[in-house]
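TL;DR need structure tokens for one chain.
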Amino acid sequence: MSSFALPAMLGHGHAPTGFLPPWLDPAVILDNPALGPWVVLLACAIIFAETGLLIGFFLPGDSLLFTGGLLVATGVIHFNIWAVLALLILSAFLGNQAGYLIGLKAGPAIFNKPDSRLFKRENVQKAHAFFEKHGGKALILARFVPIVRTFVPVIVGVARMDRRHFVIFNAIGAVLWAGGVTLLGYVLGDRVPWVQKNLDLIFILIVLVSIIPIIVEFSKGYLASRRTRRNAKNPTGS
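>> reply
TL;DR here they are.
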């Protein structure tokens, strides 16, 4: 199938992820005959870079996974879907592990500078407390939020979250995000015409649904903090 087949199949006169420049558009990256069987390895490299290397924050993780699943379903990518899922999940897992190690090794040298205005020990302590309390949920939900998923494993490494806990929640997050979004594209993308014609909206909805629990957690914390301050000022309740 040519590089123009996917847009035509989706009923568009342009690439389906129109909010991205061509060199970042998954339809352009993945539907490239010149790459042939190497396209899956390229997708894995992009997922690893976005989840593990700070310079990868701009890469299109969600849209690449969903589009990858769609292209496997439609035969544009000739690769077994279960092999694709396994490779992408492994790449997402190893990416976060790399980010954690970056934070663990390089972070303390930055945050321990006493005169730094941007990086303070207090922030590290707050991050440590936050991830110890909400670590599992925070790590998993962060997977679905662009940019955030790039920096969270580094912050967790700086905060020195328990390594065993990080590995467990990293694995769960990798399966749910890399596996789930790719499988969603594979199952829905080739069977529901509305999905094919509204990929931009699908990606936005994925992000919005993912940040709802984060907003709820922060709102609960903010309200609890306000109640604590109010009770401290008025201990008798009068």
